[in-house]
Amino acid sequence: MSSEFSRRDFLRYSGATGAAAFIAATLSACSGGPASTGSVGAGSNKDLITAVIGYGNDQSWDPTQTASAFAMAGINHVYEGLLDTDPISREPYPALATALPSDLNATSWTFTLRDGAKWHDGQPVTADDVMFTFERILDPEANVLAGNFFKSWLKEVKKVDEKNVELVFKFPFPDAAPRLTIAKIMPKHVFSQAGAWDQAKGGKVVGSGPYKMKAHNPKSNTSFEAFDGYNGPRPATVKQMNWLTIVDAAARVAKISGGSAEAQIADNIPYANVDQLKQQGLTVEGGKGMNHMFLMFNTAAKPFDDVRVRQALHYAIDKQKMIDVALKGHGTASSSFLNEGHPDHKRASVVYDYDPEKAKALLKEAGVGDLTVNLMAVNVSWIADCLPTIAASWEAVGIKTTLEPQDTAALFAKMDQFQDYQVVAAASNPNQFGMDADLILHYNYVPGGLWMKYSHWDGTKDAGKLFAMMDEAGKETDKAQRTELIHKYLDFVAGQAILYPVVHNELMTAWDPKKLSGIHAQPYPGINLLQAKRT
Q1: Residue 34 has what pLDDT?
Q2: Residues 28, 21: contact at Cβ < 8 Å?
Q3: CA atoms within 13 A on the CB side of 19
Q4: Which of the four, 209, 274, 304, 503, has the lowest number of CB atoms within 10 Å?
């Protein structure tokens, strides 16, 4: 069976596109059905945590491929990397490996596997499993999503003996430690079998983590139970977990509301329901990070090949009105590709503060008049709420605007067929993979990536210039110099406005503090319950 991974599979199973995980963040909310009723009355069972996830559970569960918000959250409970990262601080800690690397600037790291580590089927974890996993990640034919975050710096992985492996780098790469959490180690004896990768996509899970999958019912729920054979650093805190997939916002809020609420925690809380849930005694907190709405332009369609037109459409948007009306104050106008609060954030050399007069001047300078724009968009609820402000803003500077929100899969089926379009509005969040600027930019901007093909920017002189700048920054080990190079390419991305954020927004999580402790709101979709406890 060919290991080539088709674009159709990519959308079907992972909800991701190219180097970026598009549906992974807010977009994987496009599927999901009624919740299971199997845990009705579970609110009083202290051996069980019932969670409500606002994204579909019916996309890929293959850790090397998925960008599904639900699956990635679940995978963090059932699989381990050599190193994993804390879900909030994002600091790496030893997982299957016994220690962190001692020299972050070395060109190779050797890891020893944890004694007694077992797969959920009872077999021991070995160096062959590590080799098997990384061979898939680095395989150009398999071309898996996770490979986009390793291929630029990881040369190869060598087996030293049954308990030790060596990672050999192309050059020193200090950010490799937190990056290793993306590479969830998988059992060779299970997933080397014929058809096993398709089974992984469909929900077959055999990990070494503290929980093992108990049952998986696509579009309903996925349940987990504590793995008695786990001897790692973050053991299960409850015997059972049941995660309900409820994409409909009203039904999701209802599941956590009231004195007889079935669930103790829910993510993806609508802004309009925050005060209501707080009044019921729930804790509702937001996580600020890279979640954002962006505009992507078709640079092969005139006049969007002209940077002045792309910039004009950004300057024209009344972002504060969008934040006040659509996001209920839970957002920030983008001042860089990176969100404010990111360690490498700095106001870009070009910031699209609301300036309708500048927008008009740029359009005039570009010789563009009587412009009509059809804005295609995904129909994720908060994105749809933002669209009227964009339309009104563009109309105010003389741009006739039509809005075309639609199902995510339908929109990208058109993109995959390279049907003609002008501008797309959608959401993205690379923070579920990691926090460093190199990873975040490679999420969208990568040579040969589908985003670059969608925008018809791949292969251009300017794209080549950006990729060279990104490569230069990635190889720089001096922190101050590297930061300077990062800001240089972030300025370039801002000025080009090919695929660029309009606003960064908070993601809201609600939980019952009388029934759960150890919870922190994440700045990316999903939940992490590895340190949660029933109270």
Answers
A1: 41
A2: no
A3: 22
A4: 274
Higher pLDDT, 453 or 42: 453
Find the Cα–Cα–Cα–Cα dihedral 412, 418, 420, 423, rounded to 10°: 50
Identify the pLDDT of residue 378: 87
SS3 107: coil
Amino acid 422 reads Q
**What is the per-residue pLDDT for 287?**
87
Are 269 and 521 contacting, i.e. CB atoms less than 8 angstroms apart? no
Phi/psi region, residue 418 (left: phi>0; alpha: psi -120 to 50; beta: rest), is left
Beta partners for residue 118, in sequence order: 124
Length reported for the chain = 535
pTM for the predicted model, two decimal places? 0.85
Query: Quick check: helix, strand or coil at residue 190?
Result: helix
User: Exposed (0-12), middle (13-18) or buried (19+): which is 295, by Cβ within 10 Å?
Assistant: buried
Contact 423, 373 (CB under 8 A): yes
Tokens found for residue 107: 């060109």
**Which is nearest to 534 in space by CA: 52, 51, 46?**
46
- What is residue 256's three-state secondary structure? helix
Q: By CB neighbour count within 10 A (0-12 exposed, 13-18 middle, 19+ buried), where does 325 fall?
A: middle
The pLDDT of 388-412, averaged and rounded, is 92
